[in-house]
TrEMBL record:
InterPro entries documented for this protein: 6-blade_b-propeller_TolB-like, SGL, SMP-30/CGR1_Lactonase
Listed name of the protein: SMP-30/gluconolactonase/LRE family protein
Alphabetized Pfam families for the sequence: SGL (PF08450)
Signal peptide location: 1-32
ATP-binding as UniProt keyword: no
Source species of the chain: Methylorubrum podarium
Top-level lineage group: Bacteria
Ranges for domain SMP-30/Gluconolactonase/LRE-like region: 55-304
Length: 323
């Protein structure tokens, strides 16, 4: 590995972590593990790594690629922040790429809005299309993706990318709904739930027995919600509301090694215990789209918030973080 990650932010402004002040509001009688101080040191500072984006999304820590890869969706490009702190264009045009993850071999998996497909970046720089059609029609606009230990890809397919086309006219959906899909290692694509209006972020619990999915279509008068499902043999059951968000709707999701759930929301990163108890809030200037754990020890939390990519050191590792 190159030199340690703190070099990321030399000369970069640091901002106080205002969310710590909300600790007593969220969990005055909570167990120690259910407080924000179990996640962040009181002296922690949020650092700005990048502030030249339009809508930053899909962060993923990718050591084989040199650092943090993320999508600048509306600028139709993907960026890389190297461990030394330098930001550079990673792929342009990106087909309005959104969510990203890594497979077990460290290859980058990306959801593309413009092309309605999920692709894999090969070591020679070529792209392999993994999924772009279902039941005879084009997918809507794959949004976020995770890879299970068995190699299956799970991804959401809302209609944002075709409803809000960056160029040209929006196109009608060719699907009967907005689904969550599972792409099996053998190549078959199946709907695992059709219960969402606009499914968005998704993440597994550390043992992969639970899948969390964001519902990002805020029904009138109802708070945005994160739902949980039991997972068994590639199927989902026991749907329930895991948590609701007080501001906006939940977007990207991540889970730490102790099972806490993190969500990008309308006012920053919200955190819950594995049992669904509120743990705390890391505020951002405007909505937070997505988050990722990474860094050399997996304890650095990267936050995509509008035009910015932020980072803060934590006390916990991300679940299944590649370090």
């Amino acid at each position: 590995m190159p030199e340690s990650l703190p070099r990321f932010c030399r000369g970069v402004p640091r901002r106080p972590l205002l969310g710590l002040a909300l600790l007593a509001v969220f969990a005055p009688r909570a167990r120690a593990a259910d407080t924000l101080s179990a996640v962040l040191d009181p002296a922690a500072r949020v650092e700005t790594l990048y502030d030249e984006g339009t809508w930053c999304e899909g962060p993923v820590w990718a050591p084989e690629l040199g650092g943090l890869v993320f999508s600048d969706v509306r600028r139709n490009r993907m960026m890389l922040i190297r461990e030394g702190g330098r930001a550079e264009v990673f792929r342009e045009p990106s087909n309005n790429a959104n969510g990203n993850t890594l497979d077990a071999r460290g290859r980058l998996i990306t959801c593309e809005h413009r092309t309605s497909r999920v692709v894999r970046l090969e070591t020679d720089g070529s792209l392999t299309v993994l999924a772009d059609r279902y039941a005879g029609g084009r997918l809507n606009s794959p949004n976020d993706v995770v890879v299970a230990r068995d190699g299956a890809l799970w991804f959401t397919d809302p209609s944002y990318g075709i409803d809000q086309a960056e160029e040209g006219e929006p196109r009608p959906s060719e699907q009967k709904g907005r689904f969550v899909f599972r792409f099996a290692p053998g190549g078959s694509l199946a709907v695992v739930t059709d219960r969402f209006v606009q499914p968005n972020g998704l993440a597994f619990s550390p043992d992969e027995r639970i899948l969390y999915v964001s519902e990002s279509a805020n029904r009138e008068g109802a708070p945005g919600e994160i739902r949980a499902f039991d997972v068994s043999d590639g199927r989902l059951s026991n749907e329930r509301v895991f948590a609701t968000v007080p501001n906006g709707v939940p977007d990207g999701l991540k889970v730490d090694a102790e099972g806490r759930v993190y969500a990008g929301t309308g006012d920053g990163v919200r955190i819950w215990s594995a049992e669904g108890r509120p743990v705390g809030h890391i505020p951002t200037e405007g909505p937070c789209a997505n988050i990722a754990f990474g860094g050399q020890d997996g304890r650095r939390l990267f936050v995509c918030a509008g035009k910015r990519v932020l980072a803060v050191e934590t006390k916990v590792r991300g679940a299944a973080t590649r370090a």
